[in-house]
Every structure is written in structure tokens, then in C-alpha cells.
Amino acid sequence: MLRAALLDVVDPTLDRSLALGAAGDGALHTAIVVGVNGVGKTTTVGKIARVLVAQDRTVVLGAADTFRAAAADQLETWGARVGVPVVRAHVDGADPASVAYEAADRARAESAEVLLVDTAGRLQNKQGLMDELGKIVRVVSKVSPPSEVLLVLDATTGQNGLTQARVFGQVAPLTGIVLTKLDGTAKGGIVLAVQRELGVPVKFVGLGEGADDLAPFDPEGFVDSLLGQ
Ligand SMILES: Nc1nc2c(ncn2[C@@H]2O[C@H](COP(=O)(O)OP(=O)(O)O)[C@@H](O)[C@H]2O)c(=O)[nH]1
Ligand SMILES: [Mg+2]
């Protein structure tokens, strides 16, 4: 009965596919990845790019975490690994929104099919972060309104995951959740509450640090793992 009740909460009927159009549809589709520091945003961007490349789609990455140069370096490493171009700031501390815009502009100029924008997640300055993310969404929307805004949550997060969801949900309508670090001992049960709070599904899970360690969310497997089966 518990298993059935949990499965009901997870809701296996939700559409968990990425709303990024179809190969060859001629349009540019944009996804923005948000979440607090260290949850796995940059890694997730790299992994999603890998999935898209495997589907023969052309991808551009935007490094809109300009706070630390290392963040753009990390995304560039992912770009090289999966074979997609990365647009990054020319100077340290550049405006994240202008980098995001430049990435969108390049994606459009190159007739790329998907733009993935990586962002910073310093929650310490909530208003600053919201302003920054809001501006990123606005400028990118001038070129290609994001059809996905993915919230990345770390499976080790507890109740704070709900706070994160509320904060980021105020910036832009979130369209999906990525639950990372599910390869560890944490089971990530908080996503059930987050999914209900936001009304959007968990779409992917992160199962490691490698390029292929991203999997579609499996409601049954998730519930069984929660129940220790
Ligand atoms: N074990 C594990 N580690 C992950 C996963 N996703 C990301 N990481 C690691 O978590 C750390 C932070 O990831 P990063 O993408 O830089 O987080 P960001 O600050 O949100 O961009 C890095 O060491 C990643 O390799 C995952 O699914 N499993
Ligand atoms: Mg990052």
C-alpha cells in the first residue's frame, strides 16, 4: 500500500521528456539550468549536451556563471568533451546576461538547434541572484524564449530543497527538476515534496560525474529505492 501511495505521489503519468523540439525542426530551443552552488548544474549541462549530440542535434553552451573564471573553464572542458562550442565571458566578472545573450545570438547565427545556459547559484545574495537570473531569462527570450528552465537539486538536500525550489521558482517558471548525486547513499526523497510544490516533474537523475551518468527519472525505481528495495 505504501509503495502504491508513493508511486501515486511521484505520478508516473507525467511527461518527463525535455521540451526542446525535435531534430531538424528548424527552430532554436533554449534550456536554462538553475540551482544553488555545487548541486551539479555545470555537470548536468555537459551531460544533457552529450544526450543531445547523440541525437544528432547541434548545441551551443552559454557559460553565464561569470563569477569565477573556473566555472567557465569547467563548462569549456565539458564542451570539448562532448564536442560542442561554448560561449564565455571575455573578461572576469562580466555581466552574465550579456554572455547569455551572446550565446543565444551565436546559436541563432549558426542555426544551432539547442542552447543550454549554465548559471551561477549564490543564494547568499538572494535578491542579487534573482535579478541576475531574471535578466538572463529576459535577454535570452529576445532571441529564443526558454522552453525549459531546469532546477538542479542534489539528492543529499533535505527540507532546504523546498526553499531552493521556491526561490528559483520566483525567477522564472520552472519546467523540470534534475536530481543529482543519486549514485551516493542519499535517496533524494525531498524531490517528492518539490515536485508537488512546483507542479513540475523530475525529468533526469544524475548518477555520477561522467558524461554518460545521466538517466531519465524512473518513478518505480525511485520508489523502490526509497523503500529500501
Ligand atoms: N557523484 C556525483 N557527483 C556529481 C553529480 N553531478 C555533479 N557531481 C559533482 O558535484 C560537484 C559539483 O558539480 P558542478 O556541476 O560543478 O555544480 P554547480 O556548482 O551546480 O555547477 C562536481 O565535483 C561534480 O563532478 C552526480 O550526479 N553524482
Ligand atoms: Mg557550475
Give a quick precis of the structure.
Helices cover 43% and strands 17% of the residues.
Throw out a few tags for this protein.
8-stranded mixed beta sheet, Rossmann fold, alpha/beta, binds guanosine-5'-diphosphate, 17% strand, 43% helix, globular
How would you portray this structure in words?
The structure is a single chain. The chain has one domain: 3-Layer(aba) Sandwich (Rossmann fold). Helices cover 43% and strands 17% of the residues. It has helices at 2-10, 41-54, 69-82, 96-109, 126-143, 160-171, 190-198, 219-226, and strands at residues 29-34, 59-64, 86-87, 114-119, 148-154, 176-180, 202-206, 214-216. It has an eight-stranded mixed sheet with strand order 3-2-4-1-5-6-7-8, sandwiched between helices. The two termini are 15 Å apart. The structure holds guanosine-5'-diphosphate and magnesium ion. Magnesium ion (MG) is lined by residues 41-42, 65, 71, 118.
As for the CATH topology, it is Rossmann fold
Instruction: Quickly name the level 1 CATH class.
Output: Alpha Beta
Rough shape?
globular
Tell me the number of helical segments per DSSP (H or I, 4 or more residues long): 8
How large, in whole angstroms, is the Cα Rg?
17 Å
Any chance you could write out the topology, listing elements then pairs?
Layout: H1 2-10, E1 29-34, H2 41-54, E2 59-64, H3 69-82, E3 86-87, H4 96-109, E4 114-119, H5 126-143, E5 148-154, H6 160-171, E6 176-180, H7 190-198, E7 202-206, E8 214-216, H8 219-226
Parallel strand pairs: 1-4, 1-5, 2-3, 2-4, 5-6, 6-7
Antiparallel strand pairs: 7-8
